[in-house]
Each structure stands twice: as structure tokens, then as C-alpha cells.
Amino acid sequence: MGCGDNIREGTEACDGTDDLACPHRCAADCTCGPITCPTIRMTQDQPDDQGGEQIHAIYVLPSDGTDELLDTMDEICTSVLAWNKWLLGQTGTNNFRLDTAGGVLDITFFQSSMTDYQIRNSGQTVTGGKHPQVRDTIQNELFAAGVIEDPFAAYGAKTKLYAVYYGGTSDFACGGGALPPGLMGNVAALYLKGDPGCSFVTVGGSIDNPGYFEFAMIHEIMHTIGLVPFCAPHQVLGGHVPEPNDLMYGFDGVHAWILPPVLDIGHDDYYRGDGQPCTDLARSAFLDPPVPNADLPPGWGTPIGSSAPGQASLTRSQDLRTGLLENALPSPSTVVVLPAGVK
Ligand SMILES: [Zn+2]
User: Fold this and answer.
1) Is the same domain home to 216 and 327?
2) How far is Cα of residue 38 from the mean position of the Cα atoms in its chain?
């Protein structure tokens, strides 16, 4: 009986090898220890500690990009742990399930066959000659190379959402996400050298003090889950809300994004918990610990345990026909309010 018998009992989060809640991370006092950061570069997804939906980090470089070792020198790992810790602080109960291997954050490294110039100018061209589809290009190449699951597969064929830290440029934004069901995909991406001014922002400075890139990444992850849904009462600008100090603020051209932001101010748009048939972070299948009656992102298929009819997955051509463009992040150059202690 008690802690140390490899049987989880009473209030124990885990006990030795009985560690379902945190595989390979059970501490001697039967609490879950922290996820540790990798020091060895991996070029493929490692064997998962846990099944089910989870978020997997990837460091992508263009063929001519400068390798800053962000995957093995803690920057990406710290960034991921920082935005996930912030999320736990906001909900008080849950954050996202992260892909770990042996208790270590699983980060994949991938070097593109395309140059920074080629990636930056790929895809559609919009007003001002800008290119909003860097994320799509990266997503397509990662899938073609066998690094990620099929971005457009129906349920059963994919369980992962990819948080891509791209060490290249963009003439459009500092990051982009999918926004299902209109824009299907499984990659949320940051363009670390993007314009305007993204490269002046530090990535992964501190677990306790997330900065612009941390909030930007979790903003793009929320989009890729299907948030802010168009059925939310205050949704504006294609998946955003109007409050400048909200995580999902959409830049209105005037008011700067205020950091650190709040998760769904008023809990009435995308973290509601109201049981209504409108995509809700509170029911996301990516949450840790898992929540009852969890939903996959819209268009990913029928969730486990749901009796609702499956929602057909969009095909590639349907996706292209929607003509939906990437969601531009509020630029860091517009961020003017940074409270003391926050980088
Ligand atoms: Zn956005």
C-alpha cells in the first residue's frame, strides 16, 4: 500500500511504473515530474508515450537557413512548455497533451529542399504582392516527406497537431494556422524570421514568462483546432475576437495586441463549457487530462464516444476552392503593452 508499490492509489497521480497520467515521468513522491527537454536531434517522430490526440513540435529550416539548434538547445522546448503552462494557469484544470518519448518532449527536425526565397514566395499572391501560404507549403512538404500525418485525412488516420517553428521568412505575417472546417490542416506555424520584425522577438526565453512567440504559437494552435468558431457571439475577422487583450484578438488595424493576453474573456466565445454545438476548447480532444465527450477539430471526423454522425472531411480540392487564406497574426511591432517582468 501507499507510494512506492507501483500501484496508483488514493490521491497519487502515479506510482512508479503505474504512470498512465505521465508516462516515464513519475517522481519518487508519486507526483508527475516535469517534461524534460531533448538534447539529441531527431528527424522522425519517436515512439509515443501516450496514444490519442497530442501536439508535436517540429523545427523546420529552409535549405539555406541558419541552423540555430533551437530543437536541441532548449529554445523550442522552453517555448512549448511556456505556452502550455500559461494555458494551465488560464483554465486551472487542463492544458494540451504534448507528444513525449520517454518523458522527453519529442521535437522533430526537418530541413526543407526549398530555399527561404522559394518558400516565402510560394502559394497565392494577395494584395501588395504578399504571400500568405508559407504554412501550407511547409505542411505539404512535411507530409510528402513522411514527417507528419496526412493534413486532410479523416478521423482514424490522424491524431496529431503539429507546432512548427520555422526558421525562415514570410512577407505576410509571423505565423499562420489552419481554421477548420473551412481551412483544413494539422500544422500551426511560426515564421521566426518573418516580416515585419518577427526576428527581433525571442523564442523560448523562459517557461514562466511567455513572450510574443509563445502567445503567437498557442494562438495559431487554437485556430488549427477550429477556434474561434464562426458560431461564437463575438467572432470577428475570420476566427478572432475583438478584445485586444484576448489570446485570439484579431488586429483591427488600430489597437495593438496586449500581452500577456487572457483566454476567452468572459468565457463566452471559444472556452465556454456550455455544451452547445459550437466548437469549444473546453471539449477539445487535445486537452490533458482528457475531458468527457471530447471533440476533434471540426471536419476531423467523429469523436470517440460520440453518437453524432460523422462530419465528412474536406478534400484537398474542396479546401483550395474555399479560397480561405491564412490568418495573419497581430504583428509584434504593434505590441505596445508589456507588463513588468514579461519579455
Ligand atoms: Zn489569428
Assistant:
1) yes
2) 19
Strand partners, 24: none
pLDDT for 94-142, tens place per residue?
999 999 999 999 999 999 999 999 999 999 888 889 888 899 999 999 9
Co-location of 244 and 299 in the same domain = yes
Does residue 134 lie within any of the structural domains?
yes
Number of domains in the chain: 2
Kindly state whether residue 194 falls inside one of the protein's structural domains.
Answer: yes
- Give pLDDT, residue 198: 83
Question: pLDDT-based confidence at 155, cuts 50/70/90?
Answer: low
DSSP alpha helix (H) spans, the chain? 75-91, 116-120, 134-144, 212-225, 316-322
Does a structural domain hold residue 255? yes
CA 32 to ligand 1 center in whole angstroms: 33
Residue 97 Cα to ligand 1 midpoint, Å, equals 22
Global pTM value: 0.88
Name the residue range of residue 62's domain: 54-337
How many angstroms is it from 140 CA to the middle of ligand 1?
21
Which position has the grid cell 502559394? 123
Same domain as 171, residue 135: yes
Q: Name which of 22-26, 172-176, 224-228 the model is least confident about.
A: 172-176
Number of DSSP helices (H) and strands (E) in the chain, helices first: 5, 9
Question: What is the torsional sign of CA 64, 79, 293, 233?
Answer: negative
Distance 104 CA to ligand 1 centre (A): 29
For the stretch 116-123, contacts whose Cβ atoms lie closer than 8 Å and that sit 24 or more positions apart, written own/partner, are 116/62, 116/63, 116/64, 116/65, 116/168, 116/169, 116/193, 118/62, 119/62, 119/168, 120/168, 120/169, 120/170, 120/171
29 plus 74 within the same structural domain: no
Residues 208-242 have pLDDT tens digits of 999 999 999 999 999 999 999 999 999 998 899 99
